[in-house]
Write a structure and sequence with these properties.
Number of domains: 2
Helix content: 25-40%
Number of helices: 12
Strand order of the largest sheet: 6-8-7-11-10-9
Largest sheet: 6 strands, mixed
Oligomer: single chain
Radius of gyration: 22 Å
């Protein structure tokens, strides 16, 4: 079996589309496409929509070129790679090997990426692919029996010194964007020395250091109330906060009081609907798919600690990779 994933801000609560294809290999799927479009004359766009569950920006150009120029179907993955690099319309990169095709492009609005994987690769490289191929909301909340401590597979920036005497680490993965550089531009952050149940209290104590903090985490801190035991109430307030790009810095108490007054009268941008936001919270994982507008849909916030990460090591590690770079099989 072959898996297709379209990483697109237009696609549902997790901003991706996952499709299971019946073909034994990636090469077999492309060869079947050659037969359908080039030999049998099916409409390129209609065939892609039927196969992949919807349009994929620029992807039909490989089959259009094959039909227009009489290109023979690839017989090996090397031939497929060469055909894609010569004839596929992309605004970024094309990577291919015997078990995958990975493409980065953009539609002049946002960055997009799409992938074909042999299912054998998904099984053997779950440490890199588990989140990318995860289909549906939410992520599992159970922690299971962790075999040992969790070690992040990519660099993670610490937002504060470790809490004296504290244990664990809480990670923040914010799959957000505000311009056309929209994939993997915001590296993961962490709060060492605390776990998720302590995050609300920790945020109230911290004094952010300027540009180190993403604006979303500054909003989360400002909207954490003095009496909040957990982080879920602040996430719900962030869902109604009008400007998540605004840097909210200052003394927590006065900042929170001012933010709550502003929240009472704040209006949201046209198309943003808090009722379409999805929020889930458990002891070691908080996740929010916040609805931003009708055009781009949702953006994702994940807050999890080392307990959840150790119990879901492949999912946690691949999620950190997802935030760190577009190509999960790239170097590093």
């Amino acid at each position: 079996m072959t898996l297709f994933v379209y990483r697109s801000h237009y696609e549902g609560p997790l901003s991706k589309r996952v499709r299971h294809l019946p073909d034994a290999t990636v090469l077999d799927w492309f060869r079947r496409g050659w037969v359908a479009v080039v030999e049998e004359g099916h409409d390129t766009d209609a065939w892609i929509v039927a196969e992949l569950g919807g349009p994929v920006y620029g992807f039909g150009t490989i089959f259009d070129a094959a039909r227009r120029e009489g290109l023979a179907a690839p017989g090996t993955w090397q031939e497929l790679r060469d055909l894609l690099q010569r004839h596929l319309y992309v605004e970024g990169e094309v990577q291919a090997d015997g078990l995958s095709v990975r493409v980065l492009t953009d539609d002049d609005e946002v960055e997009l990426a799409y992938f074909f994987f042999d299912d054998s690769l998904v099984r053997t490289r779950a440490d890199r692919l588990a989140y990318l191929v995860h289909d549906g909301w939410p992520l599992p909340e159970t922690t299971g029996g962790a075999a040992g401590p969790f070690t992040p597979p990519v660099p993670v920036e610490e937002l504060a010194p470790a809490r004296p005497g504290g244990e664990g680490v809480t990670y923040a993965v914010l799959l957000t964007f505000c311009d056309s550089e929209s994939i993997s531009w915001l590296a993961p952050r962490s709060f060492p020395g605390i776990r998720l149940p302590e995050l609300a209290a920790h945020l109230r104590e911290l004094e952010p250091r300027g540009d180190d903090w993403p604006s979303e985490l500054l909003a989360l801190r400002a909207l954490t109330a003095p009496g909040d035991d957990g982080i879920e109430p602040a996430l719900s307030r962030c869902n109604r906060w009008p400007d998540l790009e605004q840097p909210l810095i200052g003394d927590h108490r006065s900042l929170h009081e001012g933010s709550m007054r502003a929240l009472e009268s704040a209006g949201l941008e046209q198309g943003r609907d808090p009722d379409r936001t999805l929020i889930r919270h458990s002891r070691h994982l908080a996740q929010m798919s916040i609805h931003m507008n009708d055009f781009f849909g949702h953006q994702q916030w994940f807050l999890f600690d080392d307990v959840w990460a150790a119990g879901n090591a492949d999912l946690a590690g691949s999620l950190l990779r997802y935030a760190h770079g577009w190509d999960p099989l790239g170097a590093g």
